[in-house]
Amino acid sequence: MTAEVVVLVEGYANERVAGTVSLVLDGDVVVIVDPGMVARRNDILDPLHERGLSEDQVTDVVFSHHHPDHTLHAALFARARFHDFQAIYLGDVWEDRPAEGFLVGPSTRLLETPGHTQQDVSTAVETADGLVVLTHLWWMAEGPAEDPYAPDQAVLRRSRQRVLALNPVLVVPGHGPAFVPGPDTPA
Fold this sequence. Notes:
The chain is mainly beta and 187 residues long. It is built from two helices and 14 strands; from the N terminus they run βββββαββββββββαβ. The N and C termini lie far apart (30 Å). Strand 13 (130-134), helix 2 and strand 14 form a beta-alpha-beta unit.
């Protein structure tokens, strides 16, 4: 089984900031990754509705990390399970579990990839075209090579190298358009 990845909002980071918000369709699982800051909440909802999906049909939300530009609009998806680096949250239930290898859906798994923060999680999705990784290890295709917020640049580089070693066909970064990794991708 393979899944589909759709970028709902292409993020940016300049004089204003918006996180990249993505949709993963994986069998019966409907996942939103990083429902954070955008100019207006309909920037997330309109493309979701255009695909024939409502907020209540979202089964899972994944946070790459806990910065507001990646979490601010989580409440739009009140029926979803929420995933981060350490647990699953649903209503008032907090279920501890490591993120590493956790299957959100049959073709969607979480990877612990510290870098931008110590608690970063990447979402790896097997699609018909190959592996797509949704991650904040890169803000955009060109990096930055040195993440100004990363607490440890060596840890960031190791996580980037780990993701690149998986040979993804596409990387969906935290604040820019999806890109095909290549020899110029900062590691």
